[in-house]
Amino acid sequence: MVLADLGSRLRGALSSVESGDEKEIQNMVKDICSALLETDVNIKLVARLRDNIKEKIKTQINDNEGGSNKRKKLQKIVFDELCGLVDSHEEPPKPKKLSHKQQTTRGAKGGAKATKVTSDSHIIMLVGLQGAGKTTSATKLALYYKKRGFKIGLVCADTFRAGAFDQLKQNAIKSGIPYYGSYVETDPVKVAHDGVQKFKQEKFDIIIVDTSGRHKQEQSLFNEMIQISKMIQPTQTIMVMDGSIGQAAESQAKAFKESSDFGSIILTKMDGHAKGGGAISAVAATRTPIVFIGTGEHVGDLEVFKPSSFVSKLLGIGDIQSLIEHVQSLNLQDDESHKKTMENFKEGKFTLRDFQTQMNNFMKMGPLTNIASMIPGMSNIMSQVGEEETSSKIKNMIYIMDSMTTKELDSDGRIFIDEPERIVRVARGAGCAVVEVEMVLQQQRLMSSMAASAKTMNAGQGPQAGGM
Ligand code: GDP
Fold first, then answer.
1. Which GO terms describe its biological process (predicted)?
2. For a substitution probing ligand 1, which of 136, 161, 293 has the most ligand atoms within 8 Å of its CB?
3. Domain enclosing residue 429, as ranges
4. Which of 313, 330, 351 lies at the terminal end of a domain, its last residue?
5. What is the mean pLDDT of each run of 10 residues along the chain (468 residues)?
6. Residue 254: CB atoms within 10 Å
7. Does 91 fall in a domain?
8. Is there an atom of ligand 1 within 6 Å of 213 CB?
9. Is residue 271 in contact with ligand 1, taking CB distance under 6 Å?
10. Model-wide pTM > 0.95
């Protein structure tokens, strides 16, 4: 079963609970467990998750509670347990800009005297088997950090696979990223060393070193990883793992852990037909955080991995926080409407104008199907249609909001409940059906309630599976 199906199975299991009687709850737990097993999650992990859910139900849910209350609590329990499954509780190291690490020493009269760089470049070494997606992920990662203002260079230390350097070079040129590699040098340790030295001297913030893979987990590969690692002393070693390999992921991750002691994981190919469960089990077995997931072959198809966002999306409840962070990466700090949205969000508000701003912003970002899954209530629709239809649906939503008056846009949406004739007017203006305007209003309400729960969360009242 692929991940998209896992999401709909989990949603189905949760929504099958009506009265919340024991039989319904038992069936729900059973359905959740078999869905996870069919996605290749390790059986021991599933058993532990089942026991935890049962235990929490016993201690947190009162038999006399009403069905809707029970449902909410059940959803929260399942949400938390699924987060626990993919959360390693480890924080990977975060790169910093070298210019931010500069220390200014003060002269006798307090004036700035000299600027000294106190820190080194953040070196990321990528390891993993051939075909896992290392070279692709190297450029994706470089572009991700470049967009955030980091000075970043790529080093191809894969001298094993013919064409590896050309592949990295082409990707790097397309994305405007400096690169280093050699057509003649056959020693990967030397290439890695020379590339890292070159970019270090040029004061690059981040240096990404792509290493070679093999078809199999061979000792020669592991020896090579150890030697490169000793030579370049990476700040962070990331294992790139194919998310679709199923149960084999666990032994692969363990073998790499022993040789290269990676501290973070990128799961690739989580789009389309990935089962994902095997890789998730591998993460649990090595207690290593997934930092990113690859969601396509395009250079922009990389998402920051956050357990709660991942589970939110899986359960189709949207993830407004990721949506906003995603938009932030556009470097819109100077954009007035974006600033206003951020202020509103911090206050737990989300107006129709905020919704309009966000929609307009992420039309610039693509791929839309990924982004749509962050909007509550849209993931179900979007999983059934393609990129083109997603794009036209989003454009439609923008036309609808463009047809609203200033007063309506700046409102929390209640104005449409009090004066429903406004809905008819907007529909006419946008050239769409009334029900489509109602859908936009419903989504904005969901996002607004999520903004409110995010504010509560930030105020330290614990996580909430808001919007379910
Ligand atoms: P390497 O041998 O580990 O460097 O793997 P490559 O980067 O060459 O990738 C192997 C294949 O996987 C290529 O065809 C990539 O386009 C593809 N690939 C990599 N990441 C993803 C991903 O996230 N999704 C999809 N669908 N394909 C990917």
1. SRP-dependent cotranslational protein targeting to membrane, translocation
2. 136
3. 316-461
4. 313
5. 74 82 88 88 89 90 76 84 84 77 43 48 94 94 90 94 91 95 93 96 95 80 91 94 83 84 89 73 81 89 83 68 60 68 82 84 61 59 60 84 93 92 93 91 83 60 35
6. 13
7. no
8. yes
9. yes
10. no
